[in-house]
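Researcher: We plan to redesign the surface later, but first we want a full-length starting point. Tokens attached.
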């Protein structure tokens, strides 16, 4: 019947495409509605700087949580590239820094010596051996029905690790394990990506963020998608179309109802369709708004308001900048994650500044150079010239700093704070390396959390769609329905979460889409 589908997916980001591909392959009729004029959500590439020939991963930039199972199940034509270096962290106020080389442990040991942290090398190695055991226990479960807390604890078989990473604030194990302020900071950063938190916060949001950053693939490695994030979306779009899903862009959902009615606009026309199941690849807050527009109560009544805690800055450089540290080549320093002003003490002071409504000074940030690992995102001319891209992701800069009225001013201030923070650890101003586009404008673009809310419908600019959940169910949680067992349930039986707001959601993982699809298929078998 025209206008009637087995499944309507609201939101054509990567999770929505994963769900559509899985379900359409089983013969279900699937409609995907995307409000933008292109698919992919945050997982897209674009020529951000006109006339330059560089296709930048504009929002998301690395992949860790996309399971090999999804890639193989959907036959994705996608190549993920491993980086040799884990990280480089300049010691503020000095000409030395810590380089963690995944292929040369002795060089890494020497680097610990150089920054005065020789005693922390062995504990650092042991610490990540422990997180590796955690990853190997948790990772196989993320594409299965939720394990319960006690079950997963038994599976790990290491009560000390469970207590350190799951039960107690991560600040405790960091301070017990490492003496160096720098080493503590390097580890803590994984607990603070888009998560506004202190190391000792009682709600353990920092622990949950850390956990998702160290379990990917069972190893915790973060990979570069060849061709940029747009290659991920393109592969998923191909899989969904090949399976028979109907994908509509410039089609914005305006209301939904618990009985499966979806209203959307298409080229100015109001359209109503019905579905046996609605999969919401939008934040729970957006879903609640769609239900309210349809005259119904929320799907997630107790959902706290989402709050992102980052600004993202994209740059195109004529070359990599010179470092103060003459012992480390720039392509090694920028070959992994380049940490700036991320001592443990600096991260804690930055948290206090953000809570007080101020931009931290200096501003902690992470830097990634996609083009060193994957030069294919640059035109042949740019490659030959030595040009490189940089992606900067700030920490401890919460959405609460921004309003509609101050967003432009705050964007400029955050951009300058990023440049100032970067310059504080370089031997030359980064501005000397920034290329200009065909209009003569510097190749630098800054996106605030409010910009993400406007462009991507990310409530509060939260890349996780809200506070993170543990990747397991509590021992007394109801797991009576497929949706509950797969961590995608809402208050309405016909409506499932399939985006970053699902349990085990967040990041470019496809887990929200996969697990929603599995819940629908399991229900069909009952």
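Model: Full-length starting sequence:
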């Amino acid at each position: 019947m025209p206008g009637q589908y087995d499944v309507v997916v609201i939101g054509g980001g990567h999770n929505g495409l994963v769900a559509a591909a899985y379900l359409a392959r089983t013969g279900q009729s699937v409609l995907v509605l995307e409000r933008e004029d292109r698919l992919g959500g945050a997982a897209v590439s674009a020529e951000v700087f006109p006339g330059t020939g560089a296709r930048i991963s504009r929002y998301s930039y690395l992949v860790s949580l996309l399971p090999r199972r999804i890639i193989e199940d959907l036959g994705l034509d996608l190549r993920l590239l491993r980086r040799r270096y884990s990280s480089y962290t300049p010691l503020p106020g000095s000409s030395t820094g810590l380089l963690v080389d995944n292929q040369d442990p002795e060089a890494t040991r020497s680097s610990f010596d150089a920054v005065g942290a020789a005693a922390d090398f062995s504990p650092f190695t042991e610490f990540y051996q422990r997180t590796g055991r955690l990853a190997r226990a948790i990772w196989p479960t993320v594409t299965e029905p939720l394990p319960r807390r006690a079950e997963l604890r038994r599976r790990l078989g290491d009560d000390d690790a469970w207590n350190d990473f799951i039960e107690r604030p991560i600040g405790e194990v960091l301070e017990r394990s490492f003496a160096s302020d720098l080493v503590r900071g390097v580890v803590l950063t994984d607990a603070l990506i888009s998560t506004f938190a202190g190391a000792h916060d009682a709600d353990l949001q920092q622990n949950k963020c850390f956990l998702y950053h160290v379990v990917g693939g069972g190893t915790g490695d973060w990979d570069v998608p060849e061709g940029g994030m747009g290659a991920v979306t393109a592969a998923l779009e191909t899989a969904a179309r090949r399976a028979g899903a109907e994908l509509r862009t410039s089609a914005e959902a305006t209301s939904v109802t618990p009985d499966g009615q979806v209203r959307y606009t298409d080229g100015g026309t109001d359209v109503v369709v019905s579905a046996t199941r609605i999969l919401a690849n939008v934040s729970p807050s957006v879903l609640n708004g769609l239900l309210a527009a349809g005259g119904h109560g929320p799907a997630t009544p107790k959902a706290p308001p989402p709050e992102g805690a980052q600004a993202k800055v994209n740059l195109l450089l004529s070359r990599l900048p010179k470092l103060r540290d003459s012992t480390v080549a720039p392509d090694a320093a920028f070959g992994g994650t380049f940490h700036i002003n991320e001592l443990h003490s600096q991260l804690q002071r930055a948290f206090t500044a953000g809570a007080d409504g101020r931009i931290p000074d200096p501003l902690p940030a992470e830097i990634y150079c996609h083009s060193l690992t994957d030069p294919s995102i640059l035109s042949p001319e740019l490659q030959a010239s030595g040009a490189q891209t940089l992606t900067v992701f700030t920490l401890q800069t919460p959405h609460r700093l921004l309003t509609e009225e101050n967003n432009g001013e705050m964007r400029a201030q955050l951009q300058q704070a990023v440049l100032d923070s970067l310059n504080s650890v370089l031997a030359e101003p980064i501005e000397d390396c920034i290329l200009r586009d065909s209009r003569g404008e510097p190749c630098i673009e800054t996106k605030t959390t409010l910009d993400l809310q406007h462009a991507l419908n990310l409530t509060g600019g939260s890349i996780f769609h809200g506070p993170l959940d543990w990747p397991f169910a509590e021992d007394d949680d109801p797991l009576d329905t497929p949706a509950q067992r797969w961590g995608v349930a809402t208050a309405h039986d016909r409506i499932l979460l399939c985006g970053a707001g699902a349990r085990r959601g967040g990041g470019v993982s496809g887990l929200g889409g996969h697990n929603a699809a599995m819940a629908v298929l399991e229900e069909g078998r009952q």
